[in-house]
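mind reviewing both lines:
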Amino acid sequence: MKERHTDEELYARTLRALKRGRFPGDFSVKMRMCASTSGEKVLDIGCGTGWFAAAVAVQYEAEVLGIDASEYAINEARKRYGDINHLDFQVCDALLIQYEQAFDKISCLDVLEHFSYEDAQSLLKKIHTALREGGSLVLCVPTNDFLHLSPVRRVAASLSIPTFEHKTFFSVRKVQAELRRAGFSIAELSPWFHLEDQLRIMLPHKLYSLPLIGKYLVGSVNIRAVKDGCAPSLFLNCSGEACNSQDTLVQR
């Protein structure tokens, strides 16, 4: 099984992508969803060491602010990407943001699952308030809970394999419901299948609609949601191609 990207690998991967202007895997899906025009204001919540914020600032010449609760992560981000124009990083707890209609785009990638259900709801409402009318939220959350089953955790612990402390899991259907409850409409949705990423093969999309397979093999979902928008929902497969119907999505 392919190992999860380390921090240093993400850094190197970002630099290579910035030089080429091409982004691999679901990185390209996130970048396309966060497409901005020059001068637009973008907030990257839970930016970590800044790889995505840096990519958006360079690719789209947007004014990007990355925030993270980790002082270490922000110091690393400033060290690595501090020479990029229109890019800033601040230490900030996402639940404490007080922005009102300040941003055109907000990205929140692999962050929401680290909050309790109540805090995740609160964060989505704060993001809605921070966006300008018609602004977009680019959200990524894991939907695969296989690694978080108790037996798997016990085996991992016995082998000294680290696991990730996620507090909340969202099915594809659940995360859409929470976004609508917070005042968003779903503009794009793209599931990402980690099995395909690891095996470098494409599997029949309908395979993931089977309950057990869909539950344990779908890795995460990328969503672009619009504030108070009425854009029709566009459902995409992991290659960014439009699907015929919502039935092709994995829902639990």
Residues 1-5, 196-205, 229-252 have pLDDT under 50 and may be disordered. The domain at 7-242 is CATH 3.40.50.150 (Rossmann fold). The two ends are 25 Å apart (CA to CA). The first strand starts at residue 41 and ends at 45.
